[in-house]
Design a protein that fits this description.
CATH topology of the largest domain in chain A: Rossmann fold
Structural class of chain A: alpha/beta
Number of helices of chain B: 8
Helix content of chain B: 25-40%
CATH architecture of the largest domain in chain A: 3-Layer(aba) Sandwich
Order of helices and strands of chain B: EEEHEHEHEHEEEEEEEEHEHEHEEH
Largest interface: A-B, 80 and 89 residues
Number of domains of chain B: 2
CATH topology of the largest domain in chain B: Rossmann fold
CATH superfamily of the largest domain in chain B: HUPs
Strand order of the largest sheet of chain A: 9-8-7-10-6-1-4-5-11
Distance between the termini of chain A: 66 Å
Number of strands of chain A: 13
Bound molecules: flavin-adenine dinucleotide
Largest sheet of chain B: 7 strands, parallel
CATH superfamily of the largest domain in chain A: HUPs
Radius of gyration of chain B: 22 Å
Oligomer: heterodimer
Structural class of chain B: alpha/beta
Strand order of the largest sheet of chain B: 7-11-6-1-4-5-12
Helix content of chain A: 25-40%
Number of domains of chain A: 2
CATH class of the largest domain in chain B: Alpha Beta
Strand content of chain A: 15-25%
Chain lengths: 303, 342
């Protein structure tokens, strides 16, 4: 029996690459200076969805909300085997916290067919792990977080193993359900040549527009629009037009989007400064070490 | 949605599993008490489960003025849907101004579901909570007595203070181990308020078929002395030096994420932002550069001895004793000196 999976993916700045250079003078991070990557655990969520498709058939749709450049993670999803990709991009999404983000995503996911919604457990730029459970609530479906593997899927019921920190649970649930997937769940596959060939040129409408303009730098609007139309038609043949939706397309109520939909606000940001404490130098010699140990015994630090 | 509310109580979600109270809510009780005293309101504990009335008294001993107790066979095992429904009902009925959760697997699963239903703000993984004010830059509007939700952000490279003043309750999850558990007072008295769960079958969508618990082998939180090794230890074999020193000091063994990723030691030993937070009497850091993510889990140790070949290593910015040298030489010297003295 085939299942439809929707995977939420996110493009994130690679926070592992943070060094002094990307910190601004005011202590905030210059996100633009960091490489943008596919959020690691979202790759595990995508992998799980692709495994379900490989085994049972069905579809995998990758959805992201972000800047137009976030189309890159959608292309990466298509290269790995996703059937369809949706970019939600709109200036009015800016400054959304997890509550507003989950609302916007829910408006998009509601327009899609799904049996299983998958998210990475958390994104490395916020580490909150909140969007998954909040999205499940907004869709009115159950959630299973911290999923480590799928042990069974039949008769519209799935069984998974989830981590509970100091152990595991085996949990069964009727579909539809939302899963958040851990990095230990699987080894994400790499791009497949077959899919790369097919979707090599996958583009969003914004990108198609840019491409048409680049190809006809001196032409008038009408000619560029015609060119864009031509590119769109040719890409459609291989399902390589990435869907691009704004908040109106998904009928989102603007009250719950962006700044007005985000209850959490930043009061202040401080950079972490290492204040030098008073420090004692100890020589790495028998004498130095013996004196140190003696002192620690004297002051009862060690018994 | 709850109207803006600054008179309500400060609540702690009293997470228990099979009648066993988790540590984090108990750790939270101390801070909830301070916050509530500043706001001059009572502390409430929210306790859900089945056959757990004994735990209500425990929450009172740890500082709760009121315990909202909901017992139901359907609440025996934690499920996000049922627990969220019951907690939301309590929030709507009793209108607390602040609700705190441990940032445990359960807390991080439950709190966002509740926040979504209540359309309330939620800050994940706080390391500090205070009461303070906020001035809105654009309008000059001043909000007083807000919960300042302080957390590391961006991989630990910055500390952000988050607030929410437009919608209530103010909610946060708090990292395990960062707050000091208060002493229980067996003579404290409090009120237990019994509420009904009113669950329907739809509230219980999960079947929990099996559960295995792996006893945590390492108890870093309780250790007075911790010897921690990093990538600089060089190999799993060299890590024996670390174990040796810990053994002769009666201490526990900690590690950095890098050492764990390199396979020198198990994940249970990780100290730092994504591991355990510790504050022992003595912390010996060997072959550890001192990244902020590691520092976040250990810099409240009373004494820190750092051993590193690099005199410029950041760890020396917050250590008390600086030993510039090869740990494979220095540690055996320490072991020898201790054996001779004790
Ligand atoms: C989101 C996020 C969360 C993280 N969470 C954590 C966490 O919880 N805990 C954690 O520890 N890390 C965490 N990290 C990783 C952290 O950023 C560092 O990468 C890690 O702590 C470095 O470990 P290290 O000091 O062992 O390794 P390195 O930084 O590689 O340091 C090794 C040190 O050993 C010294 N050395 C080498 N040989 C010797 C020798 N023979 N004798 C003495 N010294 C020697 C070197 O001079 C160097 O200073 C996290 C990172 C991110 C992005």
């Amino acid at each position: 029996m085939p299942y439809n999976c929707v995977v939420l993916v996110k493009q994130v700045p690679d926070t592992k690459q943070i060094s002094g250079k990307v910190m601004k003078d005011d202590g905030t991070v210059n996100r633009a200076a960091l490489p943008a990557i596919f959020n690691p655990e979202d790759l595990n969520a995508l992998e799980l969805a692709l495994q379900i498709k490989d085994k049972f058939g069905g579809t995998v749709t990758a959805v992201t909300m972000g800047l137009p450049t976030a189309a890159e993670v959608l292309r990466q999803s298509l290269f790995r085997g996703a059937d369809d990709a949706v970019l939600i991009t709109d200036r009015r999404c800016a400054a959304s916290d997890t509550l507003a983000t989950s609302y916007i995503l829910s408006c998009a996911v509601k327009t899609l067919k799904y049996d299983i919604v998958l998210c990475g457990r958390q994104a490395i730029d916020g580490d909150t792990a909140q969007v998954g459970p909040q999205l499940a609530e907004k869709l009115g479906i159950p959630q299973i977080s911290y999923v480590e593997n799928l042990s069974d899927l039949k008769d519209n019921r799935l069984t998974v193993r989830r981590s509970i920190g100091n152990g595991h649970q085996i949990v069964r649930c009727k579909l539809p359900v939302l899963l958040t997937v851990l990095d230990t769940a699987n080894e994400p596959r790499v791009n497949a040549a077959k899919h790369m060939m097919k979707h090599k040129k996958a583009l969003t409408p914004i990108e198609i527009q840019q491409k048409a303009r680049a190809e006809l730098p001196d032409a008038d609007e009408a000619a560029v629009a015609a060119k864009a139309q031509e590119i769109t038609e040719s890409l459609s043949k291989t399902h390589s037009v990435v869907k691009q939706w704004n908040l109106d397309d998904i009928k989102a109520d603007l009250t719950w989007c962006g700044v007005s939909g985000s209850p959490t606000k930043v009061n202040r940001i401080q950079s972490v400064v290492l204040a030098a404490k008073e420090i004692r130098d100890v020589e790495p010699t028998e004498q130095g070490i013996t004196d140190l140990i003696h002192e620690l015994i004297q002051d009862n630090t060690i018994a | 949605m709850i109207k803006v509310n600054r008179n309500g109580e400060v609540w702690v979600f009293a997470e228990q599993h099979a009648g066993q109270m988790e540590d984090t809510p108990l750790e939270l009780m101390g801070r909830a008490r301070t916050l509530a005293d500043t706001l001059k309101v009572p502390v409430g504990a929210v306790l859900l489960g089945h056959n757990i009335d004994g735990l209500a008294q425990k929450m009172i001993q740890f500082g709760a003025d009121k315990v909202y107790l909901v017992e139901d066979a359907g609440l025996k095992d934690y499920q996000a849907t049922s627990y969220a429904k019951v907690v939301c009902h309590l929030i709507e009925k009793f209108e607390p101004q602040i609700v705190l959760y441990g940032a445990t697997v359960t807390g991080r699963d439950l709190a966002p579901r509740i926040a979504s239903t209540m359309k309330a703000g939620l800050t994940a993984d706080c390391t500090d909570l205070r009461i303070g004010e906020h001035k809105v830059t654009k309008t000059g509007e001043l909000h007083e007595n807000l919960l300042l939700q302080i957390r590391p952000a961006f991989g630990g490279n910055i500390i952000a203070t988050i607030i929410n003043y437009e919608r209530w309750p103010q909610m946060a999850t708090v990292r395990e181990g960062v707050m000091v558990m208060p002493q229980p007072h067996t003579t404290r008295v409090g009120e237990v308020i019994h509420e009904k769960a009113n669950l329907t079958p739809e509230d219980l969508p999960l079947e929990i078929l099996e559960e295995f618990k792996t006893e945590r082998k390492v108890n870093l939180k309780a250790a007075n002395i911790i010897v921690a090794g990093g990538a600089g230890v060089g190999s799993r074999d060299n890590f024996k030096n670390i174990w040796n020193l810990a053994n002769c000091l009666g201490g526990a063994v900690g590690a950095t994420r890098a050492a764990i990723d390199l396979g020198y030691i198990d994940h249970d030993h990780q100290i730092g932002q994504t591991g355990t937070t510790v504050r022992p009497k003595l912390y010996i850091a060997a072959g550890i550069s001192g990244a902020i993510q590691h520092q976040a889990g250990m810099d409240e140790s009373q004494k820190i001895i750092a051993i590193n070949t690099d005199p410029e290593a950041p760890i020396f910015c917050y250590a008390h004793y600086k030993i510039v040298g090869d740990l494979n030489m220095v540690i055996p010297m320490m072991v020898k000196a201790i054996r001779e003295k004790i």
